[in-house]
Amino acid sequence: xxxxxxxxxxxxxxxxxxxxxxxxxxxxxxxxxxxxxxxxxxxxxxxxxxxxxxxxxxxxxxxxxxxxxxxxxxxxxxxxxxxxxxxxxxxxxxxxxxxxxxxxxxxxxxxxxxxxxxxxxxxxxxxxxxxxxxxxxxxxxxxxxxxxxxxxxxxxxxxxxxxxxxxxxxxxxxxxxxxxxxxxxxxxxxxxxxxxxxxxxxxxxxxxxxxxxxxxxxxxxxxxxxxxxxxxxxxxxxxxxxxxxxxxxxxxxxxxxxxxxxxxxxxxxxxxxxxxxxxxxxxxxxxxxxxxxxxxxxxxxxxxxxxxxxxxxxxxxxxxxxxxxxxxxxxxxxxxxxxxx
Length: 341
Prior knowledge:
The chain is of the alpha+beta class and 341 residues long. It folds into 2 domains: 4-203, no CATH class; 215-340, no CATH class. 31% of the residues lie in helices and 22% in strands. It has helices at 11-18, 97-110, 117-124, 142-145, 173-178, 189-203, 215-221, 227-232, 240-244, 291-310, 320-323, 331-340; strands spanning 4-7, 23-30, 33-38, 64-73, 76-81, 90-95, 126-131, 157-161, 165-170, 185-186, 251-257, 263-270. The protein has an 8-stranded mixed sheet with strand order 3-2-6-7-8-9-1-10. A 4-stranded antiparallel sheet has the order 5-4-12-11, with no helix packed on it. It is globular, with a radius of gyration of 22 Å.
């Protein structure tokens, strides 16, 4: 199937067309930032955004998620499945390549030996429209990680802004089906050249001054290095880097009961390896009680353990951990220090 063109003036009509079968989720403005949220009006869709506060993982792996409800009736405990509250079919419109790569990493995590039905159900019922990122922030380094600004697969549709129109490329049967709508026109050679020029323009905006070749080996060789002291002294162990990261997936499971103890819910909530109680075990032993071991765990998981587990770095270079860190810790500087020592 040939690529298609949609005039920008018809975007609202396209969103209304999708709303017949899907709920629409996309970037929308929130004060001076952007968030992924459900779109009630096509005018809310802010496709010129730079990045969102939280990555799209929150749509598939929510920060707080009830797993089931329980109640005590006489001497019996009755469980109530909450699966009927799972999301209906939806379109994630406007996710950038780095964040889509983050979802592809989470797919490997939640579809491994122990499969997560909640996550997989939402992934199966979400159509992905990926948007080429035009405005990388000063914190982005997707080019160094090989996760942007372009992407080869993982999407149903790939969209590139080429002025007064959007260039659509299909990546799945569902995507090809959408492009059959008569509002789309076949892309011409001129359109294709403009798209290629736009992609080159976006690539030229990114100039990371480091490489990650051999990073895993260098990390392993510097586990006991003193370099970690300098890079971790500003960390306040708040967990912001974990929660804004597209690929962090640690969670805790807690039981929340009412005052009578007769009813409650079992809830899954995001957790952070930076938190003091993360490695606390029975008997009060905490084998990562100090600041440096906790911070190192995250870094080594991103750049060493993930290679052993999945063959890829668990970092997509989105830059959120840099942008939202209150201590102004720059992951790029840590990588460069590891690579040059």
